[in-house]
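So, read this over?
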Amino acid sequence: MAEKTAGLSTEEREAVKQRAAELRAQEKAGKSRAAGEQAVREAIAALPDDDRALAEGIDRIVSEVAPHLIPKTWYGFPSYADADGKVVVFFKAASKFTTRYATLGFEESAHLDDGDLWVTSFAVVALTPETERTIAEHIRKAAGLEPE
């Protein structure tokens, strides 16, 4: 687990610093799709093998299912935003906070509302045809697209 100090853990402080650097880089490069794609590719390339394989798979699925979502990094995580720049879906690597599983998460801008209870994240340990179908369905819905 992350080592705790007064307030944020070391990993959490690093994530906050990463977010500040991301915002500065976005201002400098502009908020273009190309800049976002490059940032996501670099974030994925920096991951350990297991996390990288999952992140590459998530990136592929998002690109296929919801190509209108805009790639960007968010607290160092590969993420995908709507036209307003609000994060819809993100991938948090297990190695980021030394957890036992990676997370596929959805933010408030995701169109997942379903009554009084709905999913906002999944633990992801492997990409299989079945998990890929489930991920694709949730990303499609989160992006405001009709189910296939």
About this structure: Strands lie at 70-74, 77-81, 87-92, 102-106, 121-124. The longest helix spans residues 10-29.
